[in-house]
Amino acid sequence: MQKVRGDDSINNQCFTVMEKVRRESPFSQFVDFNLSIPEVFRGAGDVRLVILGQDPTVKNRESRKKIKVVLNLDKPYALRRFIDRICGSLGIGIENVYATNGVKNFFVDPPTKIAPKFPKGVSPLVEFIRYWLPMLREELSEYENVPTILLGQPILRAVLCNNTKPNMRYYWGHVNNWKSGERKAFHFIERCDNTLDRKIFPFPHQPCVSRNEYYQHRLEEYLRFMKDNI
């Protein structure tokens, strides 16, 4: 992994956003201000794939201290192997990846755990991504025409405009009796339907793919769909 151009600029922007969150957010008590924001991941080659993660907060508190790079892509964990598989199907390698998080700060607990403490209808990711969105748009502007995937249902809902088609299964053509051979078409998120103004291909997070028979069954097909539409 090479040093990202503009590292100092990114760090300064992160500090500015975190201070804004501290001052302005009515939910700042759910943010862990003691942990450093993980560095973005950028491979050593030309960027040919942008990956958008959710936030860096894993369940184990001690493990959070060890996360230094977005999605732990500097380590040979299961998520890295999943990304390697995606890259292989697209004919690229990890050296062609730029990965960042939609919400860059750590929470005191994973969003699913703190969500019940928020008012009804308020999502932690939706609430906090609005602070990070201007920076995120600027960060990704260098890769305007690079294909983009996002990982997970929560970040999918956080970037959609007007909650347009918020379910991952819609994009993956799910029907209840898929085992009988029935299926619907695959989809990507149109530029006009997301706050990043990019063509985005939603992917379930790696643990979901591992546990869900449907996503396992259709992963390679969706990857071919993506390759045909980038």
Protein model, in words:
With 230 residues, the chain is an alpha/beta fold. It has one domain: Uracil-DNA glycosylase-like domain (Uracil-DNA Glycosylase, subunit E, 3-Layer(aba) Sandwich), CATH 3.40.470.10. 39% of the residues lie in helices and 9% in strands. It contains nine helices and five strands, in the order H-E-E-H-H-E-H-H-E-H-H-E-H-H. It has a five-stranded mixed beta sheet, with helices on one face. Helix 1 packs antiparallel against helix 5. The radius of gyration is 17 Å and the shape is globular. The protein starts with 6 loop residues before the first helix and ends with a helix.
Structural class: alpha/beta
Helix proportion range: 25-40%
Distance between the termini: 25 Å
Which percent range describes the beta-strand content?
5-15%
Mean pLDDT: 94
Number of DSSP E strands: 5
In CATH, what is the homologous superfamily?
Uracil-DNA glycosylase-like domain
Side-by-side strand order of the widest sheet: 1-3-2-4-5
- Unreliable residue runs: 1-6
Reported for the largest beta sheet, the result is:
5 strands, mixed
- H/E element order: HEEHHEHHEHHEHH
Quaternary state of the chains: single chain
Rg from Cα:
17 Å
CATH class: Alpha Beta
Give the overall shape, derived from the CA principal axes: globular
Number of domains: 1
- Which fold name corresponds to the CATH topology? Uracil-DNA Glycosylase, subunit E
State the CATH architecture: 3-Layer(aba) Sandwich
Counted by DSSP, the helix tally is: 9
